[in-house]
Automatic annotation (TrEMBL):
<dbReference type="InterPro" id="IPR016187">
    <property type="entry name" value="CTDL_fold"/>
</dbReference>
<dbReference type="InterPro" id="IPR005532">
    <property type="entry name" value="SUMF_dom"/>
</dbReference>
<dbReference type="GO" id="GO:0120147">
    <property type="term" value="F:formylglycine-generating oxidase activity"/>
</dbReference>
<dbReference type="InterPro" id="IPR051043">
    <property type="entry name" value="Sulfatase_Mod_Factor_Kinase"/>
</dbReference>
<dbReference type="Pfam" id="PF03781">
    <property type="entry name" value="FGE-sulfatase"/>
</dbReference>
<dbReference type="InterPro" id="IPR042095">
    <property type="entry name" value="SUMF_sf"/>
</dbReference>
<feature type="domain" description="Sulfatase-modifying factor enzyme-like">
    <location>
        <begin position="15"/>
        <end position="229"/>
    </location>
</feature>
<protein>
    <submittedName>
        <fullName>Formylglycine-generating enzyme family protein</fullName>
    </submittedName>
</protein>
Length: 232
């Protein structure tokens, strides 16, 4: 884990005003959790394995790319990010490591950094890099640590997999969202930008829309996670 120092930023969504949101100092995994790490967890807590996990905690695609409960197979690299993992399973993994999933604000705070700047969101080349990744297929099969090392010493915030946060859909469950009175599909329409703080941040729009479409039992082949921990 690396230390993320205390700071503040204005998130795309979630603030009732455009005032900065404070992020307290915390620890974050430098890399997403890998297949090998998740396998070690399953061997210790087999109730979370593919055949034994309860349906309310993971859908049928849970670890579907693995060959069996305790074998991720030759086609999946040991040091590739584990994907097809539900929020419940990711949360359990982090808790068993003495940690937790990062909050959305924590994740976005770290993700706005490039190699040299804490906040690179206004940097055109940075946003183009993120958007170009969204168009690339099968990056989830790549090993961790091959993207750039950001200001905090964290890799793969962009360019590898999407990642769970502890409060992944909280923005769209608040009184600020049309989700309270309309269907989920409206999260993807143009009016989703009504309460946004930066109408040009298309990369962040896609992340928030993706999160808003998820449920805690969902699993997808390009969705992984990393753990955080409070800094005392």
């Amino acid at each position: 884990m690396v230390t993320i120092e205390r700071g503040a930023f204005v998130p795309l969504y979630g603030a009732t005003t455009k005032e900065p949101v404070e992020v307290k100092a915390f620890y974050l995994d430098a890399y997403p959790v890998t297949n090998a790490q998740f396998l070690a967890f399953l061997k210790k807590y087999p109730e979370n394995s593919r055949s034994k996990i309860k349906g309310i905690f993971a859908d049928k695609s849970y670890l579907s790319q693995w060959e069996s409960d305790f074998n991720y197979g030759k086609k999946n690299l040991s040091n590739a990010a584990v994907t097809n993992v539900s929020w419940f399973a990711a949360k359990k993994y982090c808790e068993c490591q003495g940690g937790r999933l990062p909050t959305m604000d924590e994740w976005e705070y770290v993700a706005m950094a490039d190699e040299k700047r804490i906040d690179a969101r206004t940097k055109e080349s940075f946003n183009k890099y993120i958007m170009s990744w969204y168009e690339k297929p099968n990056t989830y099969a790549n090993p961790v640590g091959k993207t750039f090392k950001n200001y905090w010493g964290v890799y793969d915030m962009h360019g590898l997999v999407w990642e769970w946060t502890s409060d992944f859909n909280s923005i769209f469950l608040s009184g600020e969202s049309r989700k309270d009175k309309d269907s989920d599909k409206n999260l993807f329409c143009g009016s989703a930008s009504v309460n946004a703080t930066d109408l040009m941040n298309y990369a962040a729009f896609m992340r928030y829309a993706f999160r808003g479409s998820l449920k805690a039992s969902y699993t997808t082949k390009n969705l992984g996670f990393r753990c955080a921990k409070d800094k005392k």
